[in-house]
What does this fold into?
Amino acid sequence: MSENPPRCETDVRCNGRLQDLKRQFEKKFGESPHFYAHAPGRVNLIGEHVDYCGYSVLPMAVQRSILAAVSVSSSGTIELTNTNPQYKDFTVPCLEEITIDRDNPEWYYYFLCGVKGVQENFGISPLAGMRCVLDGTIPPSSGLSSSSALVCCAGLVTMEANQKSLSKVALAEICAKCERYIGTEGGGMDQSISFLAEEGTAKLIDFDPLCATDVKLPDGAVFVISNCCVEMNKAASSHFNIRVVECRIATKVLAKSKGLDWNRLAKLAQVQTELKASLEEMLALVDEALHPEPYNREEICRVLGVTAEQLCTDLLSANTQHVTHFKLYQRARHVYGEAGRVLRFKAVCDSEPSEAMQLLGDLMNQSHASCRDLYECSCPELDQLVDTCLEAGAVGSRLTGAGWGGCAVSMVPSEKVESFLRAVREAYYTHDSRRAAMEEQSLFVSKPGGGAAIFLEK
Ligand code: ADP
Ligand code: NG1
It folds into this structure.
């Protein structure tokens, strides 16, 4: 039985961020917050674009989060305001059905995803009125899960304000499901680590059933995050869902090639389970049953024996209806290869061989190459940054999160961290005024942080 998120009694005067937020809340609403909630972002060390295929991932929480100050009110409305003026105020009546506009993914819709998830779970009607001031320190659209931290924070706030109780696992599952209301078909890694993280340890996250296992990272390995300063909003573009769809179609084609009941299967991991095959055997099957040339719609319809309409309604999502070509071979090869790298990464951490750092670094480098070449979810700036990090002394470096921009994570021997930071600063940030202006937020060491929690004022 999983525990509930911690509720910590805190002296707000000892925490600068809480104190500032309290002050802003009082200024805005003329009353004090009743409680605070925070949910962290994460950095994924390895296991990219495999969670929605049913495979395990290996993230850790970062010490950056979404923090909310909240009061429960009798106003009959949910009032949202943000410390960042870029995110405009928003109010919604509690009696109104919560609708999420996928075509216009404004910040408050992420919050409302979390509200809706908890509301639906308990059938709450009407919701308690609440006033919230939100504050975020996770760079948005950069692969560190700012959106999920916001959804998770909203789920936690809604639970607390409506006097309900949920375990961390239940909250993670609810928030993974409800973030999909925004339109992206994510796999659940971000919400799981946001709730299940524990300070000082990375986690192997398994799905179906959701379970998080501690992963002790080698002593002397420091993880450094660097942002290539290209933003990619998942919900406002179709890159992410195109990959989800390609994996779904690859699942069906592979399953059909082996005579399985392909209609029932939607994730690449399910094909492996049905076949009782190893990941190496799955890679061999990809070579045998799929071809490297992109598949067009006609070929997919022919191979699966479905009509063009069925392809649109059963296999494509709302924002992928326009796609004409699908790289099934490359995407499936990435997923089965990456799933194996996650398991090897965990095994190296468990067995602590003397060359652990080198082995882990190699796996991270292979992961990046696969994301770049097979999954095509990198971008020139991110590739340049990864190369820069390796030249600056990282043993391994790779894109983290969805990609197409955003952050790289590098594993650096502790004795080289200072020279590494200096070299990356000089090579990637200093000579570009836009990047230089963002540098403080964009290049930082990250230790495994704790999970989502509620704070009550002492
Ligand atoms: P990520 O990879 O960080 O999850 P997404 O592109 O999926 O990025 O989501 C980013 C969106 O999340 C932003 O455009 C914004 O709507 C929302 N968001 C992120 N941080 C904040 C914040 N501090 N306050 C309000 N909304 C935020
Ligand atoms: P970020 O980095 O938050 O955009 C996304 C998905 C994850 C996972 C990674 C790729 C969401 C909310 N998150 O993460 O589930 O698929 O991409 O590994 O969709």
Remarks:
- Residues 7-42+60-198+448-457 form a domain with the Ribosomal Protein S5; domain 2 fold (CATH 3.30.230.10).
- Residues 249 and 315 are 7 Å apart (CA to CA).
- The first helix runs from residue 16 to 29.
